[in-house]
Every structure is written in C-alpha cells, then in structure tokens.
Write a structure and sequence with these properties.
alpha/beta; Rossmann fold; 7-stranded mixed sheet; two-stranded antiparallel ribbon; 12 helices; globular
C-alpha cells in the first residue's frame, strides 16, 4: 500500500476522484461568481468563457463517471432506493456465535493474515457495541478467556459517556493485550467523522503542514484518539507484564482510531514487541505519508477488511476539497494490507453492519480450514 497514482486511482475510488476534481475546479470559479467586485470587473467575454468551461467540464465528468462506474454502483443505489430483500436484524449482531478463546498459538505469528484472529477481533467489537446499544456496562459480556483491564471514553465524542475503547487481557496468553475500538454510535459522533481537514501527527514527530511530505491525519478521528491517548498509552507503558504483544481492532471510526493507535504504540511504547491490527469498514485515516509510515513499520501488521459495497471506506474522497484553500485539496490514502470482499445487503447501513463483516470472516475461516484439511489429506 502506498501513495502512487495507481493506489489512488483504484477502480472503486475513481468516482470519488472525479467528484473531488470537480469540486476543486468549481470552487475558484464560485469565488469569482459570488464576489460582486470581481464579477463586475470581469469582461463579459470572460464570463461566458468561464460558464462555458464549467458546463463543458461538468458534462464531461458526468459522462465519464456514468460510463466508468455505473455498473459498480448500480446495485447499491437500487438497494438504497428499495431497501428490500436481505434486511439485517440488529439483534442478530449481538447473538452471533462466540468464537473459541484466543490462545498463544493464535498470536504466535503476527505477520500472517488469520481469519480466525480477525473473527475473534470482530467478536470483541460486537460485544463492545452491543454494550453501548444497551447502555448497561454491568451487562458487558467479555469474550471467553479474557479479563477486562480498563475501558476508555472520549467524553467529547461519546455523547452519553459510552465506552469507546476496551482493553482486555488474555488468560492463556499473558504477554498479549487486546485493544478494541467501537464505531460511530450517535449523531454527535457523526459530526466528528465529517471534520476531514488534515492535522500533523505531532506524537509521531511531525509538526509540518506539507500535505504530501508530513504525516497528517483526519482531524475528527485524531481528536477522538487524543482525548483518550494519555490513558491508553499510560496503561500499556505501565502494564506489569513485559514484553507485550498487542492485538488492535476497530470498526468504522473505531477502525480509524485503531490505525492511529497502532502507529502510536510502535513509536512510543518501547515494551511492545509486535502489533497486529484488524480493522473493518475503515474510512481513509490520513494522507499518503501516513500510509507510507504504516507500511514501513517493522513491528506492525495492519489488516484492512473491506466490503466493496460498503460506502464508508470511500470517504474522505482521495482528493477532498479544502474549503478554506480551494487550491490545496486534502490528499487521502488508505492504509494497511487490503482484504476485499463483496456483499451487497441492499442498503448503505446493512453493507456496513458488523454482521456483514462477521459473516464473511466465518466463510473465510471455513475456507481456510478446508484448505488445511485438503493439504493434510494429500500428505
């Protein structure tokens, strides 16, 4: 994963690129059109030229977008309109089967993709989000074979004071901590999600404002993380068992926070040997420099599981409009090793559900077990 043009111009991102460039082209002209002094001083022939360029540009981009991606978005758009067929019962998410306890063998090789470990992480996210939905901390059901170390809440982000991060110890693997981050759960939290300007990652040693050279992060996700950072980092640094391996997991905005946390642990937690992150339905977290930073970390492996019918990972768009400085749009890039699948549940919400990702992980686990069985039988 990187920041080269091929990474930005993946098929599923081309629509967003087109929309981003449209905004970049349109905003400077909008300034001319809405500013009376500039408008009055502009010759009539130039005004006609501007309107002609805008009309031609929008027409070409609309046609290009239609022919390029209509096949990809058709099912999801129709699903949004009809919202029919496979509807997901939210209670089913809470009652999904419980995986077996996490063992030392599961985390022995932090470099490989393991759908079973991913499913264990998803189970932890499901439990944390179910706890927030019921608003009863005392009823939190922990994954089997774990103990609750601590929960953290961003009071400014979680409008009801609901826990956003859950830290678990593993009974059969005392040198491993699991840090689980939940996703967006209220209108107040959605407001943080759309604060998409870029902010330097000071805790990683970057204070500059070069969108292409300095590591910069989505301001809304960064705010959420920084409000809990001191507590989480103090817990990890002062944890009595050393050295540590850390499993990090998150869904939606929690996936973005999990990615930021993984980089922070690698940089600033000296007693952490290895970090593996499983993130689901993750939006873009930062610029290309952050994507490269994640790729170059030797002790971190970040697995990004992505439903190609899920709209959340498409935002912020790769070239996001900068309303304050239209000439300097925000460049965004995805992070981690991608694991794609397609599951259209005929609504934007259902395509992003935890159960949609959990179902795919169950299938991936079954396929992996069948491959192991076939290999054993052949030998």
């Amino acid at each position: 994963m990187g920041t080269d043009l091929l990474d930005i111009l993946k098929f599923e991102d081309l629509l967003m690129v087109v929309l981003g460039f449209t905004a970049v082209i349109f905003l400077p002209y909008l300034h001319i059109i809405t500013n009376r002094k500039i408008r009055e001083s502009t010759p009539r022939w130039m005004k006609w030229m501007i309107f002609g360029e805008l009309a031609a540009g929008l027409l070409l981009m609309t046609g290009f977008t239609y022919f390029l991606v209509v096949g990809k978005v058709q099912d999801t758009v129709l699903g949004l309109i009809t919202n029919s067929n496979e509807r997901i019962d939210s209670n089913r998410v809470i009652n999904m089967p419980i995986p077996r306890p996490l063992t030392e063998q599961d985390t022995a090789d932090f470099t490989r993709w393991d759908p079973a470990l991913g499913r264990w992480c998803m189970d932890g996210i499901i439990r944390l989000e179910a706890n927030v939905t019921t608003h009863k901390d005392k009823d939190l059901e922990l994954p089997p074979g774990t103990k609750l170390v601590k929960m953290f809440t961003d009071e400014g982000f979680a409008s009801r004071g609901d826990a956003f991060i859950m830290v678990l110890s593993i009974d059969e693997n005392p040198h491993t901590l699991a840090i689980i981050c939940r996703g967006t759960n209220s209108n107040t939290e959605w407001l943080e999600d759309i604060e998409y300007d870029l902010t330097p990652a000071a805790f990683l040693g970057y204070t500059g404002d070069d969108y292409y050279k300095d590591v910069m992060l989505h301001t809304g996700f960064l705010k959420v993380y920084l409000n809990m950072r001191n507590g989480v980092m103090d817990l990890v640094k002062n944890y009595p068992v050393k050295p540590l391996n850390v499993v990090v997991a998150g869904h939606s905005s929690g996936a973005a926070v999990a990615a930021i946390l993984s980089a922070d642990l690698d940089k600033n937690a000296p007693d952490v040997d290895n970090i593996v992150a499983y993130i689901f339905g993750c939006p873009r977290v930062g610029n290309g420099a952050f994507s490269n930073y994640i790729d170059t970390m030797k002790n971190v492996v970040l697995h990004r599981v992505n439903n190609t019918s899920d709209i959340v990972p498409q935002f912020p768009i790769p070239i996001a409009p900068n309303l304050k400085k239209p000439e300097n749009p925000f460049p965004y890039s995805h992070v981690g090793d991608i694991h794609d699948f397609k599951s259209n549940r005929h609504s934007f919400n259902a395509n992003h559900y935890l159960s949609t990702y959990a179902d795919w992980l169950d299938k991936a686990m079954k396929e992996a077990n069948e491959r192991i069985k076939d290999s054993t039988d052949n030998n």
